[in-house]
Design goal:
globular, alpha+beta, 33% helix, nine-stranded antiparallel beta sheet, 14 strands, three-stranded antiparallel beta sheet
């Protein structure tokens, strides 16, 4: 499909199309909506969640007010010469597994002779509609699930594969999709695809029966030191390597070798930085009880895993930098 140039007139026309789709679903179907202005975006960078972009979904506002709002947002955030080929407007689902964590599952596997074989299942953490990490499980009780729920999801995927085997002639290959589990235990499929996605590294630990938590983070060196010391690229690499060694050996936090796991010399704002893309062993999420002295250990709540992971990595970064 031919893409339009990124001009103020085209941006407004594009925004108007999205707003009218939102209004159509709201007014004709009486459903909540969720929009993103780039259908090809990964990780939710162009998602516009109702809690962050309330005016877009506010039915008390005029169409022009909503279009003006969305057009400004696109103009501020989209820097490419051409506009996205498609925007997407979906039915909004309210689903929660743990407090503040939507029941947004990723099911992965492969198809062999028209039968679905699952390889992994995860619950994704989203914040304001953007991907923030995932819990990858080896068995249902790793994430406080039931065997019945997993069987229901796998059976649904097996039925989907059988239908698509006939209509699409897809009998062998990768198969994955995301789905919501609603409050009345319905499965709502989304993001169907035939690619591996970002699950390969966490799945490598599932082979050994080890559940894990995956997330990304960035730290700027200026937030850790008050001096004017500047490191060379080689020094940054050596410091980063030392940090990673400590994380693996002392905390069970593993680095994933991707473009989001590296150290950098001067970003666009002139700041040196470290980026980490990590897999966390469950042992990192065990605490000692504070209300008795018997040394009993218990896992911290799932909702606290992102903060715990960030705290552990930040502490190691601080330790290494203070001794450099």
């Amino acid at each position: 499909m031919e893409q339009r140039k990124n001009t103020p007139e085209n941006v407004r026309a594009f925004a108007q199309g999205i707003v009218r789709a939102v209004e159509h679903i709201q007014n004709d179907y009486h459903l909540g909506t969720f929009a993103k202005y780039d259908s090809a975006g990964c990780g939710g960078g162009t998602n516009m969640s109702p809690d962050s972009y309330a005016l877009l979904y506010d039915q008390s506002k005029t169409e022009n007010e909503r279009v003006d709002y969305l057009a400004k947002h696109i103009n501020d955030g989209w820097r490419k010469e051409l506009l996205p080929p498609f925007g997407v407007v979906e039915e909004m689902e309210e689903a929660e597994k743990w407090p503040g964590v939507p029941a947004d599952y990723g099911i992965c596997g492969f198809v062999l002779k028209g039968k679905f074989y699952p390889t992994s299942i995860n619950v994704e953490r989203t914040t304001h509609g953007q991907y923030g990490g995932m819990w990858m499980a080896a068995k249902p009780d790793d994430i406080d699930d039931t065997v019945e729920l997993w069987k229901k999801m796998f059976d649904s995927f097996d039925r989907m594969v059988k239908i698509e085997m006939e209509t699409l002639s897809y009998r062998n290959g990768t198969y994955s999709a995301d789905l919501f589990v609603t409050s009345n235990n319905e499965l709502k499929l989304r993001d169907w695809n035939l690619r591996r996605g970002g699950h390969s590294a966490p799945e490598s630990l599932i082979i050994f029966g080890m559940p894990n938590y995956e997330m990304k983070m960035t730290f700027y060196l200026k937030d850790f030191r008050n001096d004017n010391v500047h490191f060379t690229s080689l020094q940054l690499f050596q410091i980063y390597t030392r940090i990673c060694e400590i994380l693996v050996n002392e905390h069970g936090i593993y680095m994933i070798n991707t473009g989001l796991g590296y150290c950098g010399k001067l970003d666009s704002k002139g700041n040196d930085f470290f980026k980490f893309h990590v897999l966390v062993h469950p042992s990192a999420f065990i605490d000692y009880l504070t209300d008795n002295d018997d040394g009993e250990r218990k896992p911290i709540p799932y909702k606290d895993h992102p903060d715990r992971t960030t705290e552990l990595v930040r502490a190691v970064v601080t330790k290494v930098l203070l001794n450099t």
